[in-house]
Amino acid sequence: MRSISNLPGAIFRLFIFIFGTQAGRITTGVLLIIGGMIYGITSHQIVYRHITGNFKIHVLDDGNDYFEDLNAQTKTYYAVDSANFTPYPEGEILTNGVAVTSLTYVADAHYSINIELANAPSLVGTAYTAVQFTMESQGSAPSSYAFADYSQHPDGYYDNHWWVGGIFAGFGVLFLYAALMIHFIVKMKNANRRDEDDLPLEKIRWKRDPWSRHNVSYKQQPDPGTAFKKYTQ
């Protein structure tokens, strides 16, 4: 509870550091540029691969189903996220004698899984993301289901991250530019202040307020005739 109560203060101090200090502006700018460049470099070509075979369907309660490739030499699964398929077959259909005859998956991205099941052996092995699959059942025509991205680009596409990365890098450049401008402004003010230290007080006043010289009242010099008359009396 105490850490949560300190959160607004920490956010405020971070805000002051980023926008109110030169070190914060420079650090933020450099991090944004580096982060944007790294994210842009991760742009890559999405490659799809199509396979046929014999697959075992594992229906999970969280909406992520797995198709196990029974012909693979090692345990290989293809993850099917039901939220990304429009439409997607109901769970009863998947468990009532249908067979997945072929599927398409993202070939350049895989990960390891270890999923414990309540009434079946755990799913342990390598998983790929399936983007399309075809099912067949007795007495009905084959049905195909696919990602929207796959339907639009069945031959793959280039996943470009440079747009977002470029925006972050652009903000980083703005932070560095602001830090540079503030540095020069402060430097010029300090230089002017040092120059004023070497000037007489009256010139400093005129330099800061040029119009003040028109309001300076000079002491009137005595009239020579009046002074001579006073001396001879």
TrEMBL record:
<keyword id="KW-1133">Transmembrane helix</keyword>
<protein>
    <submittedName>
        <fullName>Uncharacterized protein</fullName>
    </submittedName>
</protein>
<feature type="region of interest" description="Disordered">
    <location>
        <begin position="214"/>
        <end position="233"/>
    </location>
</feature>
<feature type="transmembrane region" description="Helical">
    <location>
        <begin position="162"/>
        <end position="186"/>
    </location>
</feature>
<feature type="transmembrane region" description="Helical">
    <location>
        <begin position="12"/>
        <end position="39"/>
    </location>
</feature>
<keyword id="KW-0812">Transmembrane</keyword>
<keyword id="KW-0472">Membrane</keyword>
